[in-house]
Amino acid sequence: MLWFQGNSMQLARSSLGLFLINCSVSKTTLPVLTLFTKDPRPLCGEAKEVLKPYNNRFILQEVNVTLPENSAWYERYKFDIPVFHLCGQFLMMHQENTSKLDKQLLKLEQ
User: Fold this and answer.
1) How close are the terminal C-alpha atoms of the chain, in Å?
2) What is the mean pLDDT of the chain?
3) Is the peptide bond before 82 cis (omega within 30 degrees of 0)?
4) Domain residue spans in the chain?
5) pTM of the entire structure?
6) I want to staple 86 with a disulfide (CB 3.0 to 4.6 A). Which of 19, 68, 69, 91 is the partner?
């Protein structure tokens, strides 16, 4: 169960399933960085390690594309894991790009 204050968080439904979106940044809420992953996937673990210094700037949401409820995401990203979305928008795939993430987070924080 997820509990959020205010209405800055929303559960979005698209043709590719449900996912959490937060695109407004305030002192109490953070943007959502979605990691599309599958098990086992060492690259996803490595990506999470590289992103640890940024953890205080976003909420990490992991989506395992191999689960039946995520089959649409699997069809879209099965060869591209890891894939990252920030606030529901594609950000990067195959490997983390910390400069790109930092740039987008700065835009949201301003």
Assistant:
1) 30
2) 81
3) yes
4) 32-109
5) 0.75
6) 91
